[in-house]
Amino acid sequence: xxxxxxxxxxxxxxxxxxxxxxxxxxxxxxxxxxxxxxxxxxxxxxxxxxxxxxxxxxxxxxxxxxxxxxxxxxxxxxxxxxxxxxxxxxxxxxxxxxxxxxxxxxxxxxxxxxxxxxxxxxxxxxxxxxxxxxxxxxxxxxxxxxxxxxxxxxxxxxxxxxxxxxxxxxxxxxxxxxxxxxxxxxxxxxxxxxxxxxxxxxxxxxxxxxxxxxxxxxxxxxxxxxxxxxxxxxxxxxxxxxxxxxxxxxxxxxxxxxxxxxxxxxxxxxxxxxxxxxxxxxxxxxxxxx
Length: 290
Description:
By secondary structure, the protein is an all-alpha fold. The chain contains ten helices and no strands.
């Protein structure tokens, strides 16, 4: 007579053998997701060229139009390439964060990628942290390239003290995070992936024109300055001007100061607003998919 050994079953006691591996933690999954998002981004060559080349191209255009030898304010020692550099850094961050995520997530929703991800064990937090990590990486590379071109091609002097680079770090990180969460929240506005670009890009262009990216902010109409002050791009550009420009250049600011406290407050407020709106409105499925 042959006896059959019962198949091992999954125990519930402390000493029971484990037959199934535990899922990695959220932090590890977010790191893996970040690596995946970065690889995916760099495979989209047209997006890479636009996001990386746009700020550099615009800096070159405005430096050529206004001249590299003329001073923004007579006797200030600040030339136009140096003045426009902070605005180009800020608009580059906005492209990498807000515009990139708003368009790409809308496309992933439209083609069913988000629906499939939602049915996997991947925690939603890991997905969003992966997107934010990808933005930080790409925005960092983009900004480094822009600073290198400004210094090597247009002889823009870069900060030489730790305090200014510290300001640069917190403005960059806070601005990038705010742009990322707002991009996630805004991704629910386009009805389809195809309509994402026409819905997102005009918003970015308008903010660039009113936020002192293409023009001296103090020379814009007062009502336009007030509108721009509601949105984060103006504050990112102003924060970056406090890093790149000498202290004497503060005279070109309408407020007469760099307003670091207000910059941090507005960027943090948009970070919170983006998180709240994103949590309440984010959709994993298309509108016609229930």
